[in-house]
Design brief:
Layout lengths: L6 H6 L41 H14 L3 E5 L2 H12 L4 E6 L4 H12 L3 E6 L4 H8 L5 E5 L11 H10 L3 E5 L17 E5 L13 E5 L2 H14 L5 H11 L2 H21 L3 E5 L9 H7 L6 E6 L2 H9 L6 E2 L9 E3 L11 H7 L5 E5 L5 H17 L2
Parallel strand pairs: 2-3, 2-4, 4-5, 5-6, 10-11
Antiparallel strand pairs: 1-7, 6-7, 8-9, 9-12, 11-12
Helix pairs in contact: 2-8, 3-7, 9-13, 11-13
The protein binds pyridoxal-5'-phosphate (PLP).
Pyridoxal-5'-phosphate (PLP) binds next to helix 3 and helix 4.
Length: about 400
């Protein structure tokens, strides 16, 4: 079809060439909080920026296009996106089925809200179809899916999982933060809702905290837009403008992220200081076939366990020159995190062990720096870890 711009191209180009006043190629930013009525009773398209803002709507439109959804909501963080979904879509006293190894902040949010009696939560290993089927036998309002999961990169089969939820009459929500819509689009597998922490790959430059929800129906989109305003969880215009700028390079960044991750893997797999590597691109990873089917690439998040335990972890982290020891992921800068003491510290030790998070586990978010620099830094770190073992 000549003349048609692809879905990816349309998403990445959202809002370009739309400035009627000066023909600026990039859209202007509207940081204003309020908009004038033309007359008494004649409301403008936007009234007040908590309920609606043109810059925020452009970011929403871009993410909706990339995910293949119908309507979106841009929120102040990934967690406020999840909060909005939980409050809008789960009945008082309802039930949520969540991954046993979900993102630590999501686990804390779910456990605090369930402690308040707002709903109950059942944590299930969703790679175990029997466990999931058992959980879905009890009435539930929402199934939260994270694939690949954080930090162990377990892969959940979207097609079969969504089908099980649909048979049980349960709404599905995929947290697609780890893949971003250029690697995986859960709505294509029948998922009703998608959330993002735009803090990660979508913005990609570690300078905005933000979130987004994508709905696959207009009704759900309407309901979520209403609730984000009611709860006051919508995002700011400057943040939306920055995230939209970041999003324009998402596809290009992800290709370099993935190539760099592939360059580090042989060393990680072969090095004697490494006990185990968790990466869906490895043929012996239990979710390899599923990831190959539902993702367009295996991603740039790699977790591994060091043979020398905590002493080796300390030695690895001390002296890194390119990788920063930091939380978060998906930015252009390479990071290493220690899930047990950092990203997943909010989990109880028992929950950590159940999720497979040991003190020897490290998680890499591979950035887009020169691949040789990353490899040299990794090798030096592994040598230090070996010497400390
Ligand atoms: C970071 C993250 C979140 C939370 O997003 P914030 O923007 O930090 O609130 C939720 N889910 C996943 C998978 C994440 O990585």
């Amino acid at each position: 079809m000549t003349g048609e711009i692809s879905q990816l191209g349309r998403g990445l180009r959202t809002g370009l060439d739309t400035d009627p006043r000066y023909s600026s190629i990039v859209p202007p930013i509207y940081p204003g909080t309020n908009f004038a009525f033309t007359e008494l009773g004649e409301a403008p398209q936007y009234e007040y920026s908590r309920s609606g803002n043109p810059t925020r709507d452009l970011l929403s439109e871009a993410i909706v296009t990339l995910e293949g959804g119908v309507r979106g909501v841009v929120t102040s963080s990934g967690l406020s996106a999840l909060t909005t979904v939980f409050m809008a879509m789960v009945r008082q006293g309802g039930r949520i089925v969540a991954p046993h190894d979900c993102y630590g902040g999501t686990w804390r949010l779910l456990s605090h809200l369930s402690d308040r009696g707002i709903f109950t939560v059942d944590y299930v290993d969703q790679t175990d179809a029997d466990a999931l089927a058992t959980s879905l036998r009890s009435p539930a309002d929402l199934l939260l899916i994270e694939t690949p999961s954080n930090p162990l990169l377990r892969v959940v089969d979207l097609e079969t999982t969504v089908a099980m939820a649909r048979d049980a009459g349960v709404l599905t929500l995929a947290d697609n933060t780890f893949c971003s819509p250029v690697r995986q689009r859960p709505i294509e597998y029948g998922c009703e809702l998608v959330v993002h922490s735009t803090t990660k790959f979508i913005n990609g430059h570690s300078d905005v905290v933000g979130g987004a929800i994508v709905a696959s129906t207009a009704e759900a989109g309407e309901q979520l837009t209403h609730w984000a305003n009611v709860l006051g969880l919508t995002g700011g215009a400057f943040d939306a403008w920055l995230a939209l700028r970041g999003l324009r390079t998402l596809d290009a960044r992800v290709r370099v992220h993935d190539a760099n991750a592939a360059d580090l893997l042989p060393t990680l797999v072969a090095h004697p200081a490494v006990q185990r590597v968790h990466y869906p691109g490895l043929p012996d990873h239990p979710g390899h076939q599923i990831a190959a089917r539902q993702q367009s690439s295996f991603g740039s998040m790699i977790s591994f366990e060091l043979a020398g335990g905590e002493a080796a972890v300390r030695a690895f982290c001390r002296g890194l020159r390119v990788f920063d020891l930091a939380e978060s992921l998906g930015g252009v800068e390479s990071l290493v995190a220690h899930p047990a003491s950092m990203t997943h510290a909010a989990m109880t030790p028992e929950t950590q062990l159940r999720a497979g998070i040991t003190p020897a586990l490290l998680r890499l978010s591979v950035g887009i720096e020169p691949a040789g620099d990353l490899l040299a830094d990794l090798i030096d770190g592994l040598e230090r870890a070996a010497a400390a073992t």
